[in-house]
Amino acid sequence: AQSVAQPEDQVNVAEGNPLTVKCTYSVSGNPYLFWYVQYPNRGLQFLLKYITGDNLVKGSYGFEAEFNKSQTSFHLKKPSALVSDSALYFCAVISSGSARQLTFGSGTQLTVLP
Amino acid sequence: SQTIHQWPATLVQPVGSPLSLECTVEGTSNPNLYWYRQAAGRGLQLLFYSVGIGQISSEVPQNLSASRPQDRQFILSSKKLLLSDSGFYLCAWSGPGTSGRNEQFFGPGTRLTVL
User: What is the DSSP string of chain A?
Assistant: First the structure.
């Protein structure tokens, strides 16, 4: 089985401050991990993914995420938040070699306050 | 470059009416295709996926069906809509293969309201 948890429904951060959106996962086998962003009434946009290799993954719009195998986490981070980063963020996981499809978390609404 | 289209963008249908949502992808060949439903602006539920023409896998038993008549065309249908079918329907594609490594690219979505 595979699952992903985003423990925070809502994250508020002031513009210019660092932001973190949390994600933990559970898979049997090695995970492939993804982050997506969704703006209101739009489709999801791919931000970044971890497949293998360096634990720190850099993605679009200045976002990065750190894979931590011991803590089964893949938190999304950005050093300095912008108001335009306000959106709904989804973490997703799939177990390598599994016949399962991608499993999405429930989403975290990020609000960056000016 | 690759693009994905969905239409219509919005749809209001009465209960019991049929449904047809269309998704097409340009600029790639033999993509994997997916239909998701997003209720209440939150979690995504995978409805169907397809790894090739005529190959459809259903993730959730329900009132809906999917077809893939052409390589880059994916259609979501229903013979009789239910109130619970309301939601935001998203189509997505990814590169071919079943490794799971490929990210998915999403269309703009269709907002369906069943009255």
Answer: --EEE---SEEEEETTS-EEE--EEE-SS-EEEEEEEE-TTS-EEEEEEE-SS-SEEE-GGG-EEEEETTTTEEEEEESS--GGG-EEEEEEEEETT-S---EE---EEEEEE-
Candidates A3, A38, A48: best to mutate against B (most CBs of B within 10 A) is: A38
Give residues 3 to 32 of A whose Cβ lies within 8 Å of B: 32
What is the tens place of the pLDDT at every residue in A53-76? 899 999 999 999 999 999 999 999
Instruction: Tell me which residue of B113, B40, B108 sits closest to B81, measured CA to CA.
Output: B113
Nearest CA in chain A to B108: A43
